[in-house]
Specification:
By secondary structure, the protein is α/β, with parallel strands linked by helices. The protein folds into two domains: 8-252 and 460-478, Aldehyde Dehydrogenase, Chain A, domain 1 (3-Layer(aba) Sandwich), CATH 3.40.605.10; 256-440, 3-Layer(aba) Sandwich (Aldehyde Dehydrogenase, Chain A, domain 2), CATH 3.40.309.10. The longest helix is centred in the N-terminal third of the chain and has 21 residues, at 98-118. The protein has a seven-stranded mixed sheet, sandwiched between helices. Helix content is 37%, strand content 22%. Helix 2 packs antiparallel against helix 4 (98-118), helix 4 runs parallel beside helix 5 (157-168) and helix 9 (266-278) packs across helix 10. Bound molecules: 2-aminohexanedioic acid.
Length: 496
Amino acid sequence: MPITTYQNLIGGEWLPARSGKTFKNVNPADHSDIVGEFPSSGAEDVDLAVAAAKKAFATWRLVPAPKRAEILFRAGQLLRERKEQFAQDMTREMGKVLAETRGDVQEAIDEAFYVAGEGRRLFGKTTPSELQSKFAMSIRMPLGVVGMITPWNFPMAIPSWKLFPALVAGNACVIKPATDTPLSVYNLVNTLVEAGVPAGVLNIVCGGGGAVGNALVEHKDVRAISFTGSSEIGSHVAQRAAATFKPVSLEMGGKNAQIVLNDANLDLALDGALWGAFGTTGQRCTATSRILLQMGIAKQFIPKLVERAKALKVGNGIDESVQVGPQVNASQIETSTNYVEIAKSEGAKLECGGHALTDGPYANGTFFAPTIFSGVTREMRIAREEVFGPVLSILEFDTFEEAIEIANSIDYGLSSALYTKDLNKAFTAIRDLEAGITYINAPTIGAEVHLPFGGVKHTGNGHREGSEALDFFTTWKAVYVDYSDKLQRAQIDNAE
Ligand code: UN1
């Protein structure tokens, strides 16, 4: 079969990279399946895209927000019609199972309808002036050209969390998709263009190796960068962006804990652990990567969890009966393998998995067996560092206070969960867990689009989703209207 070729979208035109170079996107479940060929772009392509976006911004910012929002409504409707095809494409390029890629597209649909509603709000504030016959208010203004660097694990949902609020607020966008999953961003952007986003308002520039990302981050005409990815790259992005005073929204790692107290509904906690740790093959920032068990239940909980993890069906996510798809690429397999070795050398007990799957149906892909370590202690690297794969650590604790302390003892702070029937402990955990998200009696994954999504500490800053997402893509203008017909000097004429 001929390989489909995709190009950059710049100023409404589909263009190859200036260098003429391309890269191939392969199916992680079957490397002989080439999903497509994409432009391997560089700084000169970014320059063109930013110039096109800057030009388009001049008129886009004047389109009334409710009209911009109508485009998002249409995009939401089109995404709904195309949901199945886009989910199939996403499973093919990224690997996660169909039920989950359908969920990923659904999250973009939800975001489209939710943010479209914001087009008729975009609330500002009014406040009394300290002077007579003077009116004071603050209004939201778009930033201009904004850059987005998006990850492969939620290849449509996460771009939608960034693009939709940016667009409704009146910004022009340049997006760089992850090189493992550009097709899903193409599907999203094509849909937006068909829904009516004008030429130049939305641009895609593909490419890896830092060339496109760095050029976007350093560009003097890019007003802000929204980044989701690893902490290592995020730190680099933040430092480079500082040179041109760009605000950076950072969504990075997690080492999310599910705490299970002795009084919990254990079956529910088991279901939550299994879904939180091995859903998306553990490749979510919100994935459960630590289970904290109170000593009274550890003995019965661990064997049940291990038995269920061993029974998970690993395979090509396009097969509806598969529960765990491949990891996205060989480098992720290497990371999982390395962390298994680290955990073993630290003295953790391997309960199941612990290796890549390479035989028979797995021979052409990047598969890793669901892995559980027990006997993990809080000092171990496996208890503190993000693996971003199907590798779960079990730690044990005595008191509730100790569990909170262990949960908080890491650098990350994205998601967290507590299983208990004790309402007082539930609310104490909500107050005391250092994380941007806390679930009670539910897994660490599964955030909804109308609530703010973000973390504390080394997880990053700011929020995607929720109306809070607009805070990053707008700036405030303070407006004073004096209708007294005389000079009124603030802080002077009205002083005591
Ligand atoms: C991510 O983990 O990178 O809350 C995003 C969730 C999804 C989004 C996850 N709605 O698990």
